[in-house]
Every structure is written in structure tokens, then in C-alpha cells.
Fold:
Amino acid sequence: MTTRPRKQVRLGVHFPGVNSTTVWSDPAAGSQIDFSSFEHLAARAEAAHLDFFFLAEGLRLREHKGRIHDLDVVGRPDTLPVLAALAAVTDRLGLAGTISTTFNEPWEVARQFATLDVLSRGRAAWNLVTSPDAFTGANFRRGGYLPYPLRYERAREVVDAARALWDSWDDDAVLADPAAGRFLRDGAVRPVAHHGPHADVVGTFPAPRGPQGHPVLFQAGDSADGRDFAAATADVVFSMHSTFDAGQAFYTDVKSRLAAHGRTSDDLLILPAATAVIGDTEAEAHERARHIRRQQVSGPTAIAFLEQVWGRDLEAYDPDGPLPDVDPDVENVSITRGRVRHAKDPLAVARQWREQAEANRWSIRDLVIHATTRGGFVGTAQQVADDIDRHVQQDASDGFILVPHLTPHGLDDVLDQVVPLLVERGSFRRDYTGETLRDHLGLPRPARRDHAAHGAPSTTRPLAAVGR
Amino acid sequence: MPDTHPSLHLGVDLTDAGAHPAAWRTVPAAAHGWFDPRRTADLLATAQRGLLDLAVLDDDHVLQEAPVGGLQGRLDAVLLAAHLAPRSAGIGLVARTDTTHTEPFHVSKAIATVDHVSRGRAGWQVGWSTGPAQAAAFGRKDPQDHDDAVDEAAEVAHVVGLLWDSWEDDAVIRDVATGRYVDRDKLHRVDHAGPRFSVAGPSITPRPPQGRPPVVVPVVSDATLALAARHADVVRLRATDVSAARAQRDRLHEQAVAAGRDPRDLRVLVDTSVLLADDRSSAAARLAVLDDLAGEPWRPASLTHVGTPADLAAVLDAWREVVDGFHLLPAVLPTDLDAVVDGLVPLLQAAGLFRTAYPGTTLRDTLGLARPANVLAATA
Structure:
């Protein structure tokens, strides 16, 4: 064992989203829209001294077979207004939100996050995602304007421009001397000029620099480009690799990319999403987990999932019966829109799944439950606390973003029972020791720096397609 | 038109330090700093104590223009409105957004969400911009002239309304038997393909509690009068005498009728800048101090009252036959807001001109506006 000090576990809570993880059909499931649901989860997370609350977003309702996908939760309030409202009913909890760099402009999004950081007194975080598909673009003026390979190029530029805007006000820019009649300190607010292929931003920013300087930046992309972008830019990676081995591999890979950008291992935290199911005994926890998985994967959900891989209508099949004999339609790649297609090679996946199902005598639903189970902690509170701590101390992660299956009470038991055990072990804070999210996460506050005028003013704007 | 509502409608502007450009120099330093939301929350609490209909938070993408040394800097109005929602009740929260450079889809879900977190108290002031500064901040298109920007604002207002209607109220069914969370026949695409932009829809955010949060339009030109006649629930007129207000109101009502609307569905307020004191000479003295600090006389573009709350009550009473109410712009915050709530409001209540309790919980309740039918459901 190493002699390094015990790592502190970082923990966030994820508000239940619009996918099959969220069990809306349970009698205990509450509103996905009412502010009281958001307030409940945030209040419980803050009472347990967690690092942050996390909201995801998608800018187009998912479709399946040409119609709105109706088997999962559909719809949600807008990310930033919800976080701004939560800032009024919490004091310390970080407030993280997903905002696309593809369909938001740097000036507007920088102003929104500067505002959220001021409203929350230093608790804002921005999860940067890209969403360059034309399906999502149909809701926006520019449509599907951005070629897929350029999505991180645009994201990088949006962040560069946003940072220049956040740094355009000195921390002490407001003098507010009524006798002298000077509100802003001379020269303390500077105009910004950023000219690039993806963003052309010139002007004087209206929002003061937030308590954190810059909001904490999260990044969630998993491709090589996404990992490089995270290593260069992000403070936190929101990862999908929650199992121990995959977590360690991802952790090693991403942290090894930091040096190339002049950063150290402490500058970037890796936080996988994870579910946690606890019981009084291990057997009871596993039984609960099995029950939740069956709730998450209803018969129609199992068929719809299979249809994504098969690219065909499989409604005639019995979810409690065997897998289809017919092969996937490899030409039809657009049966589901608004989410990532799971299978890169549908024929191989189908072959493998048929073999698995036959060997285990699994129905379609059993197979889908198995195929979509990605790690997650199951056990007694003690076992789950031990397991979380093991992942963190052995560098499979720096902590987790806990994803409940029920709105809004789904994490009550984990927060009540597991977190105190982590505190007892010395792996989690007993109380907040800082004010801002950067304080909680041990991330330094970025100093304001001068951003040289970036690029040259363009006389033509190749990507600034006007109107449409 | 006779006032069919028992109460005047009173809005109030809570932007910056007040309407007078030197306002910030005459109030004690804000306890937590000028941009601390607790300052605005305190102002809102006062307005709520006075049972005012709504508070407007102005907004601009770029640093607002001010005299040399003047107050500058602002938070995003929509997010500030959302932030004020959980700790307030009764009063409406109206944020302005620029429609010239923003995405209609984003505007729609943002205002809808302010309505969700406030449980039905959101309003939306339609804004537009013609300045090169706003255009340069976004770098997406050239500045537009006034009529063109207002015309685009009308297209945005139309689409935002459709997006609010893109979910029927009872679209979420949670039908465990069939495994369906929504009835997708009650979600509607917008499929707007207009001269300036296209939006597919439906919204990602379910229909707001008020159906459509009230839309506020300031009238400053023929183009904006036409915009208000078609899209506004609350109209802010600028007028300095009753006859000018009457003429504008009549044109507004005519155009509303021509657009197929019932003029009784519009609440017409006149922008009213107020500077108040216990006696007239004290008010005049306060104005002299402010003007001296500003280096020029204060000349608001609409009805302005410098004097006592009792005189103001008489002015409002005299204008009452022409308009449904007033959008008050206090010269100095909190000074003149306090005087409105503690001086003017009790006088109006005593005269039977103003409510003594909020009539309901939503901004539409307060304005006496019915919850609108869903136009997409009607055609489905």
C-alpha cells in the first residue's frame, strides 16, 4: 500500500433524468417537474454535506420509430432557472448543470453562469456537452450547422471566449463611491475581442466576476477527443465507467493525458455516475436491486431497447419470450433519435446476445436487464460505503455522482446511511469547511488573467450563418 | 373602456438602483454589495407587502449605458427572477429577454421554468435590440433597424407561445398498464418555418402552470403598438397626458380587435416614474439633489410624478378611466418603493381603488386574466 494520505471522496447527486434509470411507474415516484422535487433532493444532499447537485439536459425530446419515445420520463424544466431557484433554498451545495456548447452562444452562456455563480455565492458548475446532430438542431436557428468532427473545436472556442468574458471584470471592479461619483473602478472592466471560426465575440461584458472566478467546468464526453478536451479544459469528468476495472482504466487514461497540458493529477477529478441500492442484509439489497431493474426495464422498454439495436419494429415479439431469429437491419440507423445508439456493430451484438440468452435461458426482458446493468453499488450500507471508498482509494475514481431511481426520495436512504459511514472512515467531510464548490472539491480559484485579443476581426463570417 | 376590474393594476420596476441615473449615489451602500441578490429580494418583499401585481427586471446583453461614473453591471434577468421565486408569493416576476439574438426555443423553456418554480407567477417582457454592441456580442448577424427587430420579436413571441402550448396540460399520464409515461398524441410539434428561423418542437419543458405566462410589451412606436395588439397581455404605454394615453389605447384596442382579440384581455398600464416625499418641497429638494449629482435634469419619457403619495393617488385616479393601471418606476430604490408601498398603496386601498389581498396565486389571477386554451390542442 502507498503511504499517501487518504483521498477524500467527492459526492454529487443527479436529479432523476429522462431515461429508463428513473422509475416513474413506482407508486412512490413523485413529480419530475414540480420544484418541490428538486428542492427535496437538494436539501437532503446538503444536509449530508455533499459536494453538488447535478441536472442533465437534452434539447430535443427523444423519438423512437418516428414518434416521441413515451416509455421513459419525458420532459423537464430548463436547467439554469432551476439551479438559480435552488440557489435561493440552499447555502453550500454546488449547483451543476449541463449546457450544450453547440446550441448556446458564448456571450449568453458566460453571462448565465456568471449570474448563477453570483446568485449562489460561488457554487456554479457547467457540464459542457456537444450536441451537433441535425435532429437537435431543428429546434434552433442554425439547424444542424456543425459537422460532427468539429464539435470539440467549437466547444473549445466557446470555453475560451467564456473565460475571456469571465476575466474581463477585475474581482474588485465595483468601487461604488457615491461621493466621487464612480461606480466602477477605472480600467477594471475591459472589452473582450475573440475572433475565431466558431465564435466571433466583441464587447463589454455586463456581469461581474463570480466568487469562483470561473464556474467549475465538467465534461462528459467519452471519445478520445472528449477525453483530450477534458484533460485540457475541465475540472471534473462526469464518466460512465463506474465498475472498478473499467473505472481504473479510464482514470489512468484520462489522468495520463493531463501532463501534456501542463496539468497535474489533482487538477481534474473523475466522477462516474453510479446507482446505489442498500438493504439490511446483502441478500435483501440484491433482491431490491433485482426488483428495481425489473421496474426500470418493463416489457415495452425491453422491446424498444432491442429495436434500437435491431433497427426494426419488434412489437410482435413477446418480451418474456426468446430473442428474435431475424437479424438486425444494419441499414436502418435512425430508429431512435435524440440519444446515442448503443451498438456499433449490430450483427455482432445480436449474435452475442442470442448466445447469452440461450445459455442462461433468458427472455428478451432478462437479456435487456442484463445488457443494460452497468455496475452500481449493491449491498448493506457498510458494504456500499466500503466499496465506494475502495474505488476512490484505489484510483478507480475520485468519487461518484449518485443517480437515484426514484424522484425525489430515491437517495434518502443512501444519504442517511452510507454517507455517515464514509465520514466515520475519514473519507468524507463531517461538515462543510468552505463556501464555494471549488472549496468543496479542492480546486483552486483561477486568477484573473488578460486574454490577448484572439484572432483577427473577420470581414466575412463563414460559420455565422445569419438567420437560419 | 370602463374598468371592469375592481383594482388598479400596479407594476414596479426593480432594475438597478432606480430610474434616476444618480439614484445609486443617494442610497446607503447595499449591505451585501450591489449585485447581491439579497438586495433585490428585499425590494421584492417590499413590493409583495404592497400587493403589487408584478415586478419587472430589465435586461441587456451588454454593459448598460450610463453617465460617466454611473452604475453599470447586471445579472441575467431570467435567472434572477427564478432565484427570487422560491422566497416570494403573490407577486409576478417579469424578466425581459432580447429576442433579436437569442434562441426562441431557449427563451420559451426559460420563461416556462420561471413559471414552474414560481408556481404560476412568471411573466415575459418581450425585448429586442438594434444596437451594434448586442450584434457584436453574439457575432451571428448584423444589427437590425427598429421595425425589423420588432417584426422578428413578433415572430419569436408567436413561436414561444406555440412552444408553451406544445404540451397539453394532461400530457403526462403515467399509465403503468401500458408502460407509457406520456400520451404522445398530446405533445405537438410546432413546425414553425418563418422568414427568419425554423423551430421543430415540441418544447422539452411541459406546459407552464399559467398555460402561457403573461406577455408584457412596451409600446414605443407604431411597430411595437402592432406587436402589443397581437401578442401582449400587459401593455406598457408611454404618455405624458391623458388624451395621448387615450389615443394610444384606442389604437391598441382597434388593432387588437382587428387581430381577432377581445380588448378586455389586455391590461394597459402607463409607465409612471415616481419620486415621493411627505411634502412637495421635500420631493422637489430630493430631485434637485439627484439632478445636481447627475449633472442634468431628469426627463423620463412618460408620466412622471414628483410630489406626495396623496397627490400621486389623485393623478392615478384621474388617469383611471383611460388605463387599467400603472407601471411604476421608482426614482430611487428602495426609497421610492417604500413610499409607494407605505404611502400610496394605503391611500388607494382606502379609496377602494386597490386590492387588499392577492385574489389568487398566479400572475394571471392577479391580472384578472383567464388561463388561455391551448391552441395546438384545439386543432389536434
Remarks:
- Chain A touches chain B through 79 residues (CB under 8 Å).
- Chain A has two domains: 10-277+379-441, 298-371.
- The longest strand of chain A covers residues 94-100.
- Residues 298-371 of chain A form one domain.
